[in-house]
Amino acid sequence: MRSYKFKILIFSLLGFTVVILASLSLYDTIEAGDNIFHKIFFFIFIYAVVILILMLIYRMLDKKYDDVETSRRLYFYTKPYIIKVNKKGSFINVNKAIEEKIQNYEKYQTIFDLDVENTEMDMLEELLRQTPFTCKFQSVGMEEVFIRFIPVKIRSGYYLIGQDITEEHKQFTFHRNLALYSEITNLPNKKYLKISLQDLFKDEELLKRKNSLVVFDIVGFKNINKLFGFKIGDETIRTIAKIANDSLYDYDAKLYNIELDQFAILFTDLTSYQSVIDWYDKFIINFERAIDVKGNLFTIRIKTGIFNIEYEKYNKLSINECIEYANLAHRKAKESRVVDYALYDIALGKHFSRTQLMEVDLANAVKNNEFVMYLQPQLNNKTNKIVGYEALVRWNNPKYAYESPATFLELAEKNNYIVDIGRFIINESFKIAKDLEIYDIRISINISPVQLLHTGFVYDIINAFNKYGLKEGSIAIEITETFLMESLDEIIDKLNLIRKNGIHIHLDNFGTGYSSMLYLKDLPIDGISITKEFIKDAQSDEFSRSIIDQIIKLANNLDLEVVAEGVENEQQNRILVNLGCKIVQGYYISKALPKDEAIKFMLDYNRKGV
C-alpha cells in the first residue's frame, strides 16, 4: 500500500512542477507595468488551480487503488484458489483458500509437484501459453478435490487462479465411466481397448516390441443366466474377471471387459510371444476344478483367441484389424470341440491348408465307408461282469492313424458330414446290439448335437431300433450336458419320443455344464456319466471326491444309473466302489477294442469272474 501511495506522491510532485514552470513561463508574458498585487493574485490563483487538479487526480487514483485492493482481498482471501509462481514454476506464496482447503499444502513447492490430470503436459510450456489445467488434491477432510487453474501472466511470473470443479469432475467421471467401463465389472470396455490400441500405435518404439491381444469368453454362459438368474450370472463374470486380473500380476498387461462375458487382454513389451502361451497355461489351471459362485459350483470352460501384434509382418496393420484378428482366432477356438485356444499368425495359413486336405479325405471316407466301430467295455463292480459297451467310431485311414477321433468328428460336424457318419454309427451299433442281445449287453452311442437337431434323426433312430427288433434298454444314446441345457426347448419333444420307443437317454460328462437339481428331475433321462476330469483327481483331491459323492447321491435319489468314465487304476475304482458307483469304464478295465476282440474279452472276463 505504501509503495502505491508513494507513486501517487511522485506523480503529484511532477504535476506540480510542470504547472509552476508553465505559470512562470506565462508570468513572463505579463507586462512590466502590472503592480505586485496582480502578480501575487496570479500566483495564488495558479497555485489553487494546481492544488485542485492534484486533489482530483489523487482522489481518482485513490479510488482506483481501493478497487484494486478490494478485488485483491476478495480473490486472495476467499473462495478462488490462488498460487503465485515465478517464471521457473517455483511457488512464491498461496492464498488463504489454499491453506484452508488443501491437506499438507506445504509439500507443493513447484508446479512439478502438482498432481496434474494430463501427465504428458510440459508445465512450463503450458504456463507460457497460459493453458488451463486441472489438478487433484486431498482436502483437509481427506476427500479428493479437483481444482482447475488458469495461469495469468504477471511481471515476476504467474498467478494460478483456480476454481473448485470437484462436483463437475464427479459428473464427468460418472458419464465417462458409463461410456468407457463395464457396469458389471468396472473394467475398461471395448471403447477403452481401442483407445489403448491407439496409444500403442502412436508409440513407435513400443509398437516395434512384442505385443499381443488376447480375447476369451465363458462357454455357454447364457445358461448360467437362464438357470440361476442374472445376479449369479453377473457374480460369475466378476469372479472370472478377478481370476484373470490376478493372473496378470507378472505381466505388463491390461484386462478389458469388452462384452457381457467376453474379455480382452492387451499384453505389451513381452520378452517373447511364448510368454502369452505360458500365461494361458497358468490361467486355465484355475478352471480345472469347479469354482464357487455364491454357493453354486460351476465347472467353467474358457475359449481363447490370441493375436500377436507383429507389426512389421502385416501391411498397414490397423486397430480394427488387431481386434478382428484376435476375434477370428477366438471364433476358431469356439468352433473347436478339441482345443480351447487358437493362435492367429501368418503360420495359421498352413494349418488351414492341412485342414482343407483333411476335409477332402473325409468326404471320400464318407463316400467309401472308411469307418469302423470300436467297443470299450463297461464293468458292473457289484456283479464283476461286463454289462455294456460304449460304441466309438474310428477312421480307418493310415494317414490319420494318430489323429484323435475328436478332430475328424469336429470337422465332420462343421461340414455336415456328421449326419451320414451318424447314420453309419447308429446302424452298426444297433447291429452289434442285436448280436449281443443274448448276453444282456447294452450299447451306448454318442450323439452329435448336429445329428440330434437334424430333421430326420428321430425317424432314423426309431426306425433302426424297430428294424433290428431290439428290446427296451439295449441301446442308450449319450448327449452332452452343455448341449442339452443350451437346446432343451428345441429337443425336449424329440427326447421324449425317442425314450417312449424304448431307447434310453444318458447325460454325458455330467458336472461340466450348468444343470441344476431343479432341472435334472424334469429331464427325460435314464442315467448320467461322470466325466473323467473328476475321476483323474479322485485319489489326491478331496474336492473332486466330494463332487463325485454328491453326483452319485443325486443320481440315486432320482433313480438314475451312474457310469464313471476314465477309470485308469485300481485305486480310482476302489474309491468309486466305496462311494456307491456300480458301473465303471476306462483303461483299468480295457481300452476300446474292435468288435470281435471286445466280444471275446467280455466272454473271457465274465466266464472267469475276474
The amount of helix comes to 40-55%
Under the CATH scheme, which architecture of the largest domain would be assigned? Alpha-Beta Barrel
- Spatial order of strands in the largest sheet: 14-15-16-17-18-19-20-21
Q: Oligomeric state of the chains?
A: single chain
In terms of DSSP E residues, the strand content is 15-25%
Describe the main β-sheet briefly. 8 strands, mixed, barrel
Q: What is the CATH class designation of the largest domain? A: Alpha Beta
CATH superfamily of the largest domain: EAL domain
Number of strands: 22
Number of helices: 23
Uncertain stretches: none
CATH topology value of the largest domain: TIM Barrel
What does the average pLDDT come to?
A: 84
Could you tell me the radius of gyration in angstroms?
Answer: 43 Å
Task: Give the end-to-end Cα distance, rounded to a whole number of Å.
Answer: 113 Å
Number of structurally distinct domains: 4
Derived from helix and strand composition plus strand pairing, the structural class reads alpha/beta
- Categorize the overall geometry: elongated
